[in-house]
Amino acid sequence: MTTLFTRPDAGLRxxxxxxxxxxxxxxxxxxxxxxxxxxxxxxxxxxQVKEWDQHxxxxxxxxxxxxxSSPLDRGGRDLxxxxxxxxxxxxxxxxxxxxxxxxxxxxxxxxxxxxVPADEPDTPxxxxxxxxxxxxxxxxxxxxxxxxxxxxxxxxxxxxxxxQLVFGVSSSRNWAALWKPAIDxxxxxxxxxxxxxxxxxxxxRIVELSLHRHTDxxxxxxxxxxxxxxxxxxxxxxDG
Length: 240
Fold this sequence. Notes:
single chain; alpha+beta; 5 helices
């Protein structure tokens, strides 16, 4: 099933006018929500989204720059919570791949390019699961959680991680809405501070996140998820 896309070329990175803002679940008039909306509008204007070809698929990369005093692998700065509102605002149907990184550097950048297929991965997926139930149900998370538990004997040692996910979905599916519940179900790999709350893993330890969409209308309501993960060396994530 695997479909991967290449990361936008580094030469396309633009310094963001406004620092990235995390997803907010507050009311529409809450200051956090207003700040998020202002940020998204600024990014759309900077990327000239209104001039995009409506029929082309895109890949987007967000690099979140943090000061050296801020840890990259803790502190609640989940990369999916940076990427989701951005891709939702850009229209997830037009985004085939989304990449995020947290690095120690001054300022943050964004890059968008046509979605270009990449080579097949060198190794088979460490996790592959096909779900048959509603993605909005707890059973969907439980299916991924169990598959992840079956794939590993213990969580990876503490420290930063790189995670790559491929979502096999039909063209009618809002694939971006699957990111958070899928990642929340990977506690067997990411670690769970409280085993009684298995869907609250240590996902802020992800310092590099790659998300790809594989479209297959034969899947109907089913979803196939493939995942790869590995420890990340923080020296790679300094100075962009």
